[in-house]
Amino acid sequence: MKKALGTILFVIYAIIAITVTVLLLSYNDYNNSQLGGYTVYIVKDDSLEPKFKQGSILLIKSTSDKNVQIGDELFMYKVINSQEYEVIDTTLKAKTQQGRHITYIVDEEESYANDYFIGKVSDTVVIQGWGYVLNLLESKWGFLILIVFPSLLAFLYELWEFIANIKAAKEDDDDEEEDDEDEDEEEKVVEKKAPVKNTTSTASKAKKTTTGTSQKTTTKKTTTTKSASTAKKTTTSKPKTTTKKTTKTKEQWNGMGWKNESGKKNI
């Protein structure tokens, strides 16, 4: 909210400063601003009262001589000296022309060349009260204090803020670069540690595999030994059976009993 209000005030001040500067730069030979077909006149005294009060701003529209008729109320420049002029409000009584030169005859039989003609009263816009402010701003000290100094301070502030923003942006970039460097270093450390873990794990796996293989070999060996022992026992027992069979085969019947080859009688 405060930032928005500050921006609005700054814009208003900028418009006023630019307007006053343009008005001062558009001064004509009679020390009045002439801009966009209008003459800007500030009523500084009571010379135009009661029609126009002191402190009013008059925007007098410029018009051609063809539009001026007898009986029209006109604004004219009255010469006080070679450097000072006064704006008067008068009524046109007659108009004469000699070649390109036109002379206006007004009240009290005064005559004015058309170069001193400003405009008609009927084509004038009146802004009351603001003449004091504009008169202050257009004065030398008023313009210096109220326009030049604040504008200079505003420019310096904007310049300082611009430089501060550049420095802040540069510091942010440096911080980001440092963070990136730290991340890169951490990644490198992690990459260095990772192979060691993998080697240890591989060695453990190899050890387990070797142990398992040894156990399997031992088991196989034990099984082989048991099988060999069983085969041996089986082989040893077979001849006994053969011997019995052979003995029974060689026994003969002699009528009284069975006799073997050794002559022993078997009951």
Beta-strand segment tally: 13
Assembly status: single chain
Which residue ranges are poorly predicted, with pLDDT under 50 across at least 5 consecutive positions?
Answer: 196-204, 208-255, 261-267
Strand content: 15-25%
What distance lies between the first and last C-alpha atoms, to the nearest angstrom?
136 Å
Cα shape: rod-shaped
- Write the H/E string, N to C: HEEEEEEEEEEHHEEE
Number of helices: 3
What's the Cα radius of gyration?
64 Å
| Fraction of residues in H or I helices | 40-55%
Q: Main beta sheet, described? A: 4 strands, antiparallel
Which keywords apply here?
alpha+beta, 267 residues, 3 helices, 13 strands, disordered C terminus
Can you give me a brief rundown of this structure?
The protein has 267 residues and is an alpha+beta fold. The protein has helices spanning 2-25, 131-138, 140-250; strands at residues 33-35, 38-42, 57-61, 73-79, 85-91, 94-98, 101-105, 111-113, 117-120, 124-127, 252-253, 258-259, 265-266.
